[in-house]
Amino acid sequence: MSKLDLTLKVWRQKDANSPGKFEIYLARGIDEDASFLEMLDVINEELTQKGQDPIAFDHDCREGICGTCGAVVNGRAHGPLKTTTLCQLHMRHFKNNDTIVIEPFRSRAIPVVRDLVIDRSAFDRVIAAGGYISVRTGSAPEANSMLVPKQDSEKGFDSAQCIGCAACVAACPNASAMLFVSAKISHLAVLPQGQPERLKRVVKMVHAMDKEGFGNCSNEYECEAACPKGIKVANINLMNRDFFKANLTT
Amino acid sequence: MPVLDAKIPEGPLEEKWSNYKFKSKLVNPTNRRKHTIIVVGTGLAGSAAAATLAEQGYQVKAFTMHDSPRRAHSIAAQGGINAAKNYCNDGDSVRRLFYDTIKGGDFRSREANVHRLAEISANIIDQCVAQGVPFAREYSGYLENRSFGGTQVSRTFYAKGQTGQQLLLGAYSALMKEVDNGNVTLYTRREMVDLVVIDGIARGIIVRNEITGKIESYAADAVLLATGGYTNVFFLSTNAMGCNVTAAWRAHKKGALFANPCYTQIHPTCIPVHGEYQSKLTLMSESLRNDGRVWVPKVKEDRRPPHLIPEAERDYFLERKYPSFGNLVPRDLASRNVKEQCDQGKGLGSTGFAVCLDFSESIKRLGADVIRSRYENLFEMYEKITGSDPYKEPMLIYPAPHYAMGGLWVDYDLMSTVPGLFVLGEANFSDHGANRLGASALMQGLADGYFVIPSTLPNYIAGSSLSQVTTDHPAFKQAEEDASKKIKQLLGIKGKKTVDAFHRELGLLLWDKCGMARNEEGLTEALKKIPEIRQEFWENVTVSGSEGELNQTLERAGRVADFLEFGELMVQDALHRRESCGGHFREECQTPDGEAARNDDQFCYVGAWGFNGVDAAPTLHKEPLTFESVPLTQRSYR
Residue B142 and residue A114: Cβ atoms within 8 Å? Predict the structure, then answer.
């Protein structure tokens, strides 16, 4: 098992209102089988031993599914590997003596809270605006009474895989959240259960998204490249079509 | 010794739940909005409960320690959710799901609760489908099922290897719908640090705002804890990093009994430990055992890479020992057998603590595409973590702590021994006995949240005359002060050892002495060592930063402090239970062929512990378990 020596340039910022700056840390003898976050754990243990503030970063499941973690690593959201969250990025993908620049996801709508921790509550507010089917508990019909063609179900699943990490916002030059929002819209729009509220949903969610201050799409495809779950830009097409249709018909 | 009354409704088993619902008191729709309900935790149980109670008209305050309700650890559940739909027409029924769960739990769960769970299971699937959960389907458009451990029917519904994620997103969407409707107020990044009990009744909580560090008080007519399990007490587990026992433990210290803490589930198929820096272990879903075969080399110390070991020299030990269930034996059995093989020197991998989970036969029979469609994300995750391709080489797996069957004691209403405090999901002890079957955690979390609590909470609200209480009450002020004091104390120690170092030390000790196999000597030793570690923690831990800011070290320190108290209770419980049952395997108590030997004469009860002070011995309360519908037998999966 080989060990790596690395130089880290990490964004440090005390809180939302303080200015931040890069600090340099030396990471010595990092095991190549360690995950990126485990590498940060090692640094944090050292900082704590020295009585310094450890680097604050959000994380939880460390299995790539909860969507809590994320940082821009060497200019790329979640780092160099495609369809991989930061917690699933392992150090074997770096070389000895590499310099690694680590910054938070940045956008006005998802502001920095501390170091690499950001505030993504805007995403919750967009979902609250209409990212659901309004079914009351207890009123559901027998599950097999409504058939869903396998291909539709799988399409819905592909969009529903979004973990809400905000890498798409961080990667977009316009800080657009359209990949996130359209993934939820598409998930529900391709299923029969989602039809009754389909057009109302898209209007409410798009308006909520605009209100949060996210930018618009200019077809850069950076979001798709950064998405750890492989969510496709085609979702945005569907959202735009539905939004257009909704504005014509309502 | 105090005996607990679970308030099980009268009547035959099949009629108890409907009898209960008919007899329970109701709250008039216009009166519901006068009642505030606190829900702590927004996983499956918490989100489902908060959403459903809000739909009914209650004013709900929902709290999560995460930045969003959608992050809860329910999201990581992979394999599926059970329901007695009998869509496969293979002999399933409510009765069979009930029986499988009782048997799987090694006859240490409460019949009435388990039957209710089985009855409700089918409604859960209906509800989730209506929410738009994209379950796997046949080409016909009908829902698809697969099989899971400890059963001989296919009753598991799934969404690839991301069932928990899809179910949580469903519950989260229901919750956010009610936020939009104004019936739920959402409090994110709040960690519950105390329960407020006034005149013996739960009336609110104290939380720490993780961003500002402020201690905040919230009052309510009832408090629901849906705060998950405690398996992170082992340090290395499959749980998310933030999972903790703090909310449950602090409620325990305020009077809620803690039941069966020694019942922990060690999941057989996880990626093995490989280095000291390691922060967690990753589960590989049980569903993989549908198509993966578990084996070790026939001879000891065979250090060849697995794919070079010829077929004739492999021992498919689960298939050999348990021909009727094969690789799909329940988790406790599978884990113990894996451990046994490795302890005999037949383990593989760099540490010798791993066995093969091999898909080559299934890939040959079904083709790689079929296997990919079933397990794609799991295979990808395995490759990302280990750098090895499971389509080409067998996976290497080893058991890891995964789930807590124990939890706060609750009666049939899911109410703890503190009136007004209800406990849902993994945080309670109720349905899984000494071993949980695969795909039953999601079922229980959603059953508790969507269907049980919405029927039992009104009975409490309507049956109590609750006085008006605000956060100005002295009990809130006292609890706030206590919380601040504890935080200041942690920050003031300024010792030499990190929080994680203490957590690791405790975890290794518990894994060693109170893990897959336990004995009197080891447990006694652990019982001596834990207070020593705890004492050193309070003298020598270092917590950097201050209280009035985002301070993740401080958050962890509070949780580890609680684990250091809870761990002792877990060992105490394991020591007192001189029998083997499910996940609790006492080496002194085994059958001649090495299976768990229960002692029904002495231990057919739920052991629920009362808190008497950190260094004082806890009081054991017993809830006798009676089995009227199934005979108490030795489990057999052979």
Answer: no
The CATH number of the domain holding residue A163 is 1.10.1060.10
**Which of the four pLDDT bands, split at 50, 70 and 90, describes residue A1?**
low
**pLDDT tens-digit map of B200-223:** 999 999 999 999 999 999 999 999
| Interface-testing mutation among A15, A37, A132, with chain B (most B C-beta atoms within 10 A) | A132
| DSSP type of residue A130 | T
Q: Which helix (H) or strand (E) holds B225?
A: strand B222-225
B476-613 CATH, one of 4.10.520.10, 3.30.70.270, 1.20.1250.20, 1.20.58.100: 1.20.58.100
Domains: count for chain A: 2
Cβ distance B542 to A84 less than 8 Å, yes or no, reads no
Question: Rounded to a whole number, what is the distance in Å from the CA of A39 to chain B's nearest CA?
Answer: 8
Reported as a pLDDT band with limits 50, 70 and 90, residue A161 is very high
Say if residue A131 is in the same domain as residue A210.
yes
CB contact under 8 A, B176 and A127: yes
Percent of chain A with pLDDT over 90: 98
Catalytic residue among B190, B331, B436, B534: B331
pLDDT digits (tens, 9 = 90+) for A68-120: 999 999 999 999 999 999 999 999 999 999 999 999 999 999 999 999 999 99
Distance CA A173, CA B227 (A): 39
Other beta carbons within 10 Å of A95: 10
Tokens of A234: 């085609």
| Residue B95 annotated in active site | no
For position A55, which CATH number holds?
3.10.20.30
CA atoms within a 13 Å half-sphere pointing along the CA-CB vector of A84: 21
With tokens 């207890």, the residue in question is: A138
Q: What is the mean pLDDT of chain B?
A: 96
Domain assignments of chain B as residue spans, ordered by start = 267-401, 476-613
Determine the residue among A60, A120, A125, A136 to mutate to test chain B binding: the one whose Cβ has the most chain B Cβ atoms within 10 Å.
A60
Q: Do B132 and A119 touch (CB under 8 A)?
A: no
- Bridge partners for A73 per DSSP: A76, A102
Class at the top of the CATH hierarchy for domain B267-401: alpha beta
The domain in which residue A153 lies consists of 121-249
